[in-house]
Structures are given as C-alpha cells and as structure tokens.
Amino acid sequence: MTPRRTTLGVALAIAVGCATDGGESTVGDGGSDGSTASGVDTGGAQGDVDTDGSSGAPDRDTEATGPGSSSSGSPVEPPPPEPWVWDLPPGFPEPWVPADNPMSAAKVELGRHLFYDTRLSVDGTYSCATCHRQELAFTDGLPRAEGVTGQLHPRGSMSLVNVAYAASLAWADPGLLDLETHALGPMFGDSPVELGLVDGADALGRIADDPTYDALFEAAFPEDADPRTLEHLVMAIASFERTIISGRAPFDRWFFDGDESAVSDAAKRGWELFNFPGQCTYCHFSFDFTDSTYFAELPERTTPFHNTGLYNVDGQGGYPAGNEGLFAHTGVASDMGRFKSPTLRNIALTAPYMHDGSVATLDDVLDLYGAGGRAETPYLDFRMKTFELDEGQRADFMAFFESLTDDAVLTDPALADPW
Ligand code: HEC
Ligand code: HEC
What is the mean pLDDT of residues 305-329? Predict the structure, then answer.
C-alpha cells in the first residue's frame, strides 16, 4: 500500500525541510514547557484564588501509584486512577502532554462538564461549546466569532479536532503553546470579550453551589483537600480538549486501513490532485493535514506560519488592521499576513474559511489557490503555486475534501454535552 504512504512521507520530508525557512520559530522541546500549567496564576486576572500548582503534580504522581496513606482524614481512600491509555487512530502519534498535567479519565470528564457549562459566562448563556460545536467539528459556522456581549471577534472560531497536536494555538500566536494557558484567554479576555468572566474567583463562584462538581473535582484531583481551583479548572478543560481526536474518516479507512471501497474513485483522484498540481501538502501534510503539529516523540517544536496572499491593503503587502498575523507578535515586515495552516479534517463542515471567514466555499478556496492567492503581495509564501482544474478535477477535489468528514468525532457521546 506504500505508494500512498510514500506520498505522505515525501510531503513530510519536504515540509520538515521547510522548517529551515528563516521566519519560522523554534521554541525548544516540550520538556521546557512543563511549567506552563503552573504559570496560569500569572494571568493577572485571578490572583485571588489558589492557583499554586507547585505542590500538586509531583505528589499526585507518586501517591497515585500505591494505596498511600491519607493525611486528609478522609475515611475512604479513593482508588488510584487507572493509567491513561490513548485510543488513537492509525497513523496518529502519541500527543504531547505537559508533565504536570497527566491525562486521566476523571480530569477529562470534569473538563467536558466545564467546556459545556454556560454558567461559565457573564450572563449564563455562553460556554466554550457555543463557539466550538461538536456537529460542526467544534467550529461555529460564522465568518467571525461573536462573544457573549455581542462583540465581534476579529477572527473565526477554529476547529478543535486534534488540537492536542497543535504546535501553537490560535491563528497566529507563536507564544501560545499549551491548552492550559490558552483556556484562560476565552474566559477572561476582554479584547474581544468571549465569555466575559472577571477572574478565577468569579469563575469558581458561578459553579460553587453545584454538588455535581464536588464529585467531579474530587475524582479529578484526589490528592487535593481543596480541589476547586482555577488551575485545576483549566487543567481539566485542556485534558478534555486533548481527547477531541479525529482520524477515522473514510479517507483514513482507505489510506491507512487499505479499504479500497471506503472512498470513491473520485476522492482517490482528488487526493492525487491535492498532492499535484495542488501542492497543498507543502503546508497541509501528515496525519492532521497541517505542518503545524507537535507531539511527544518530536525532538523540537517548530511553529510555521504562511502568507497565502489574501490581502494587500496598502500596496505594500499589508493585511487589515487587527488581523496582521504573525507580524502582530514580531513586528517583522515579512511576517505580515502569516497564519498557521489549519487542519483540513472535516473541512466540508467548517465553512466559511480562513482566519476571517472571508472565503465562503471550498470552490472559492480552490479558485484562490489556483490563482496563487487573491492579492498580489511581496510576502506571498514561496510554496504557493498556481494551477488549473477542469470541472471533473474540481469535483474530484471536492470528493477528497468530503472524504475527510469523520462522523465518529461529530457524534461521539464522550465528546458531547453532558448536561
Ligand atoms: C466567542 C466565541 C468563542 C468562545 C466562547 C470560545 N472560543 Fe475558542 N476560539 C474562538 C476563536 C475566534 C478562536 C481563534 C482565536 C484567534 O486566533 O485569535 C478560537 C481558538 C481556540 C483554540 C485554538 C485552536 C487551534 O487550533 O489553535 C482553542 C484550543 C480554543 N479556542 C478553545 C476554547 C475553549 C477551551 C473555550 C472555553 C474556555 C473557548 N475556546 C471559547 C472563539 C471562541
Ligand atoms: C504556503 C502554505 C500553504 C499551501 C501551499 C496551502 N495552504 Fe491552505 N492554508 C494555509 C494557511 C496559512 C491557511 C490559513 C490562512 C489564513 O487564514 O489567512 C490555510 C487555509 C486553508 C483552508 C481554510 C481552512 C479553514 O479552516 O478555514 C483550506 C480549505 C485550505 N487551506 C486548503 C488548501 C488547499 C486545497 C491547498 C492546495 C491547493 C492549500 N490549502 C495549500 C497554508 C497553505
């Protein structure tokens, strides 16, 4: 079955080579990020709650392995947590998990409740899931997201499938590397407001009366006498997000499992076109169809970003204010308009497209790439190529896109609203 695999392998090699392209940042290996979860108390907005993570994690690790002896005076010692076992699709490596937030089924379950809890918003109407809906592959169908107060986000909601593998988070933020830290943004951010919470005490206060959470927090953090902390809250949300894995689409049954009947001949031809002449695999390759992945066995994390020629508002390659991509973080002219390549999994369900929702349909996406971008810009990524498709080839391309729709992730009850 190797011709197909080889294609992917070659694409992998090409794109790994791309990592030497000067503008990409490399941020050391995952080990150095282990402290990030305990860094959540530096957000400034939540200084009044106990977010000190330095005591919890090591104790949890050592005590969880044996029956231990209770120092909390609790009469019944909770059973040691079952070791976490990933149930990964073929071709998927083991995700990177911060050392101080190991996976556990209890944390995932707590995280799922929090992810879907509308009490965690200023007026009780919004949750993470309002903008990240399971049936839309955890996007929201809008060009740009709308926060709880009606404020328009400059960018669109991103799919959360396979976010455990994201090399960096958000459309273009080279410094946002772990889901624990990221979760603070939508909760407490005010430009724009997403959930509109004030601080950790505010967040925890909104769910303080619900006894459901007593059991959930205790099971998730059994070593802690007072487990309801903001740090634990974001650790649990991150653990849940890491279980949103999509890799059982018809494409996978064909490509990885060798089931020739899993996809149509049109989809198989579309995959060829995706490789050539599309050359999409320069930036959308490997198991998650993106060059922005990081996982446990990689020696270092690279965070690539690309300008795909969407704008030139000032004749000098400028992007609209507020959506300047990597440039907003670095101030380097050639970083203008550079964004992360998103996953293409479930892409038929996540219209409209691009960071600002400015491309309505997949047909329009093909027009854009066929023309080598829609605006001429000096910063266009050199991997952008032009190509032409006849009507039949266009239909083949669409069939390939549709073969990436993974019903399992869209309907998995373990990822659904528990309330
Ligand atoms: C108002 C809508 C909205 C809400 C509510 C919201 N998000 Fe998002 N989410 C977005 C938008 C918009 C982006 C892209 C942000 C950017 O690039 O600036 C995003 C990006 C993300 C990403 C990055 C994905 C990637 O591939 O890089 C994660 C993870 C995420 N959100 C998780 C959450 C969690 C967890 C919550 C709840 C605590 C949440 N979101 C609440 C709109 C929302
Ligand atoms: C130079 C790298 C590069 C190449 C080559 C490339 N892409 Fe992309 N792709 C990106 C980036 C970066 C984005 C996000 C751009 C933005 O939002 O400004 C993107 C976005 C997309 C999106 C929208 C995803 C979403 O969730 O909104 C689709 C669909 C897509 N690409 C398909 C393709 C196809 C099909 C090809 C080949 C014809 C291709 N790409 C070639 C880098 C690339």
Answer: 98
